[in-house]
Amino acid sequence: MRLDKFLKVSRILKRRTVANDACTGGRVTVNGRTAKPSVQLKVGDVVEIAFGGGAMKFRVAEIAETSRKEQAEKMYEIID
Hints:
This protein has 3 helices and 5 strands, in the order H-H-E-E-E-E-H-E. It is of the alpha+beta class. The chain starts with a helix and ends with a strand. Strands 2-1-3-4-5 form a 5-stranded antiparallel β-sheet. The longest helix has 9 residues, at 16-24. A hairpin with a 2-residue loop joins strand 1 (28-30) and strand 2 (33-34). The radius of gyration is 11 Å and the shape is globular.
C-alpha cells in the first residue's frame, strides 16, 4: 500500500493530501530513508513522521484498504 494512503487509512494523518504534503516536504522516513508518497509499505516497516513540536515513530503491523476507527489503531505499533 502507498505510504500516503496508509497514513490516511490508519488515521495517523487526517487527509491524504496532508500525508502527501508531509512526504514531499521531507518530513517522513521509512526504514531510515526519506520517503516519497508513493513508497510501497510492507508489514514490519518502521516509519517516522516529524511534526512541528516532535516526532512519531511506529512499525506497520497490518495493512488494510479500509478501516474503522477501532481497527485503525491495530494497523501500527508506536515505538518510543
